[in-house]
Amino acid sequence: MLQIWGKLIKDNRIISDEVSMSEMKDSYQENLKMCITELCYKFDIATPYWLKSNINEYNKRRKTNFDENNFIEEIYFDKFMIEELKEELKSNKK
Question: Residue 32 and residue 37: Cα distance in Å, rounded?
Fold first, then answer.
């Protein structure tokens, strides 16, 4: 299961945030694409274009930022941030 936390940032403040989950049996990339598409739908924003810097940052840290350089149309926020959330291991220890 893949969980992505998306945040819209304006003036260094979170103006909106959502979590998207994907449990498809497809590849990691397909699950990530589905989560980002769902977040963009929830935020009512266009899907950002991935630049090489976004790919490198996401591969290293499992998070990245998208700004006006990643969108064709004008945006009303400063950054769209995504971050992979780790699944917490649940233990049944008593």
Answer: 9
